[in-house]
Amino acid sequence: MSDLNAFRSETKDWLEANCPESMRAPMTQGDVVWGGRKVEFKNPDQKLWMDRMGEKGWTCPTWPKEYGGGGLNFEENKVLQEELMRIKARPALNSFGIWMLGPALLEYGTEEQKMEHIPKIVKGEIRWCQGYSEPGSGSDLASLKTKAEDQGEDYLINGQKVWTSYADECDMIFTLVRTGPLDPKHEGISFILIDMDQEGVTTKPIKLISGKSPFCETFFDNATAPKKNLVGGLNKGWSVAKRLLQFERNMIAGMGFGSAASGSSKKTDAKPISGLATMAKRYVGEAEDKLNDSGLRNKIIDHDMNSQAFALTLKRAAEESKKSNQGPSAASSIFKYYGTEHNKLRYEIMLEAMGTKALGWDGAEFGPEELAITREWLRTKANSIEGGTSEVQLNVISKRVLELPQ
Amino acid sequence: MSLVLNEEQSYLKDTARDFAKNKTPVSHFRGVRDSENPDCFDREIWKEMANLGWSGILIPEEYGGSDFGVAGIGVIFEELGRTLTPSPMFSSAVVCASLIKEAGNEGQKKEYLTKIASGDITLAFALEESSRHSPTNFKTTAKKDGDSYIINGQKTFVLDGGFADFLIIAADTGKGTSLFITNKDTKGIDIKATPMVDSRNAANTTFKDLKLSSSDLIGEENGSDQIIEEVLDISRSVISAEMFGGIQEAFDVTLNYLKERDQFGAKIGSFQALQHRAAIMFSEIELCKSCVLESLTSFDEGSNDIPRLASLAKAKIGEVFHLVSNEAVQMHGGIGVTDEYDIGFYLKRARVAEQIFGNVQFHKDRYAELTGY
After folding, report:
1. Per-residue pLDDT tens for A9-26?
2. Most buried of A141, B53, B274, B298 (most Cβ within 10 A)?
3. Per the domain annotation, does B1 fall within a domain?
4. How many domains does chain A fold into?
5. What pTM does this model have?
6. What's chain B's Rg over C-alpha atoms?
7. CA torsion sign, B160 to B166 to B172 to B176?
8. CA distance A343 to A346
């Protein structure tokens, strides 16, 4: 315990000295730092903060030190996160490398692959995207057809991926390719790392209903990747892919829960009014503290209760897996399904509260926050599609957890 | 609060699970029901439960209990709820024991708590006056008359009121609520059993010029509103645990049925229409588990969010028990609506338990009020 106290005070001092003042202010979506070769910083503090945290390994606090990670244990990381939260520090670096590829490489990568790729993820030198879905392979991902042919030293890659997040801004892509037969379809798939900085790789942004283009189509036209970039063995890519999807689902499930979780566990005497209720009061008014629209109020109650119940379940799953040392508990199988459906509902409730104020597309007559909510509402519709649809999640729960017959 | 059980709680849970499995499987409940025993429980079984120390879990050691806490008794109720075990434990050892523990004087604690712990007496709490939970604004009054009180009024849905040896009565004493304890046979008390759909015991009681002495007063005159709220929250949390046991059992039984029943040449559990509904129920049940645990442990760990957590648990569990008990009957098809099959028992218990100390909407409202909207 005293070790932990010492760690806390060291952490405090280090953050005090190293976290620039401007990195302790709330951020908007445009302030997110993703790193990579093509990174453009909005200001020098962003770079400073990323570099310092990356150097210390604290962009990936629990990853092993030998690969550049922070080497912190569970308790130490908790302390670090608490201290970061206390000073309201922005995340120094976000990336699919941190959330998805890194954890999978640590489990399935060779020593050489870990040494080459992990430190660059930690320091934000390479920005990764994910090449999974194809035009003909969405929910039925394993039917994918993008082909990698053995050319001796290299693989020759041809085909098309779709829904590759931010592919136009990324440096490398972790990709599922067909290296074996289509039948059985799961057993001819390999997981390969491809540099996008080559002629054979092109990307084209897809414009979404929100008006934004966070996703691309990615085309492989005689692209190449060295054989050492194959992860998990030839035709063994499906296991890596599935594991990585778990990381991805946990990430998506957690979206939008930061505020819900902290809002409900506040230890103050003040009534812990939720963000939704506060906002709704602004639009529909209140009488004696009670929201004027009773139908809307009921929806907010349901939503708040479920937010708290879900936050408690996230906490319980963490406590259970820590206690049993047996990996994720059964509860975690519901996170992607429940978290994304719940987040979609949150935006629907906001829309109901805001009325026509939530339906503006552009212009100065709407507040910037209102316009952002409208776009974000449209964005949430993809939450229950990306990373495996809600229906696929329910299939997974039925078969893997409930063991219902095929 | 802790969301995993400690060793002591796990032990209690295991013991209760074995007991429920061996001594009070659902067939026990069915037997009691079919025997038309007006008490709706088996006194031999109750004696065994008391001997295991369960009736004394919320009672301090000096009065013969073990003081193992709300989470301790909660995990037992969860297991008993799985098999619908009928007993006076909820009204006597949870509701009334807590009222006396919180409000009673030394003499009353010695007198009643020790006998509750030993299982020698049963008590019932006469609180409700209308068909929907409303823990304030009583019409039942107690008027002071020298060293006595004269009580007049009517109570309904008095759990275990049909057989309990003693009643604790909540009455308006002018400037607040007061609690009185009395033997059920006292002159001026009329008790009418109200056979309920879940085959448990409840009663309507009428007090006509019921004369009690000031020594029958529990706690301060006019001073029990806060204590009643606190005890109701403990009770809501514990009944939620019982309901959560019922939810799990109804779900497990249904899941097994989906794996066994053949139609159209396949197990019906292979149909996606049923799989997805089962998976959605599973998700809701996982959320329920967290709510129940957080609420149960909030008392023992001294949370400042006890009322909100109790309402969260009671509302969420009430809603999900509704869902699961309805789906359980539907997924069983024809046999689901036969008396021969047990699954209908859970539907009946779900609705009665939901009414105990506030239904889903009551607790949603309360949750919002406590949250500031």
Report:
1. 999 999 999 999 999 988
2. B298
3. no
4. 3
5. 0.89
6. 21
7. negative
8. 5
